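Can anyone check this?
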Amino acid sequence: MATEDRALKQVVEQLEAAWNRSDSAAWASAFAEDADCIHILGGHYTERANIESGHRVIFDTDYKGSALKLTVEKIRLLTSDVAIAFLFASLTITHPGMPPQLNARPTLFLQRQDGGWKAVMFQNTAVAPEGAMPGKNPIAHKHPFQGQMQAIGQ
């Protein structure tokens, strides 16, 4: 399992490095040809070429010069060829008019292909203020799902 964890984490490191170079081709190369990618605003890209072109646009505009830090929180190997990586993303933004910091929880589904791992699905979910832990956010106690925001077992 440790060998698989390392190989899967390398895909995450590839994504982080590509983002921080604003390299949409390198970002997309981590994905399978027929991959799906749901971005932080809910848009759905299908196929690697569309994932690449969509990221080229954001690297040239709103997220130009941004810095991404991806942290692997958990890896779950479903079969010897399919895994899920639960990530925490922290994005520092310098573009005028954008918030200086965005946090998200991407979920990355990976499949072994041609001797390596490729992302087949990427779902990015913004961490809203309601998702903050009580005591760290002034409105968290008002959310109707208070106390249910943590994953089971945490």
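Reply from J.R.: I decoded it. Residues 137-154 have pLDDT under 50 and may be disordered.
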